Amino acid sequence: MDRTFHPRRSRRVVPLVALAAASALLVAGCSSSSGGKKAEEKNSGVAAGKATTPRMTVALVTHQAPGDTFWDIVRKGAEAAAAKDNIKLVYSSDPNAGTQANLVQNAIDQKVDGIAITLAKPDAMKDVVGKATQAGIPVVGLNSGVSDWKKLGLLEFFGQDESVAGEAFGKKLNEVGAKNAVCVIQEQGNIGLTQRCDGVKKTFGGKTQILYVNGTDMPSVKSTITAKLKQDSSIDYVATLGAPYALTAVQSVGDAGSKAKVATFDLNKDLTNAIQKGDIQFAVDQQPYLQGYLAIDSLWLEKNNGNYSGGGEQPVLTGPAFVDKSNVDTVAAFAAKGTR
Asked: What span is annotated as the signal peptide, if there is one (predicted)?
């Protein structure tokens, strides 16, 4: 799709969201007469905070692995946006890139009005994204693929720069005095996970080791980390790339009799509880609820208003932000609701 005539916009998303919210409030409570209210509803496509525009069908296709609770938060955000925008949301996922591409093809065959995808393995998604574009179906990206979304022709992207997040994590390790960290990757070939560990290695002044585990087999994850800690007693930090793996790493530390501490990327309710108890030192939050919400909402905005977050040229960054003892109590309240 030619985006030449769409002006550049700031990568900050707040004004766009605020505009939509303000429109809803004006329609719901600020009309001076029923006739004015109806006119405003007709013009805005929103009534009482919900879209009155024609029903859309949008497919959300991710690389979620079974049991990975991170994606429950993404999906909850997407469902909230769909409910507001009068969208039928069709969710599907598979960690296998080839299967994920087939799921996108299924969405194309169903002639959906929009597709939101993750690009954990962008090369495997290139052809099917091209088919969607040829079919006139707008495609946006979220979570994984900040380095590749424009090359593949996606309209917008919502997520964090994983390299930047990794570099911030490495600097945090320096601040806490770590000397020897092992970065645990739960899925080989996932470009976002690789970028995280590469970023850690770039800025961390100590030793960085990479440990691959099978993220779909948690007992195996536990035993692999335990064996690594027993083999190298000088490891003082275990850096995991997802909340479930961090919680498992805590068990591994105990089983190995290690003094290593655990820090991680990503959050869930149990992870925030672990930070409160001191079992986890800190976490990098990329706000997955926001990623899901903005990706689906953006397709409604593009279709009905012609809006492009970031002007179609810049990603909308939802992270990174650190959660530790200093702010976890506030974050935990939202994590309990499933929105952080």
From this structure: 1-28
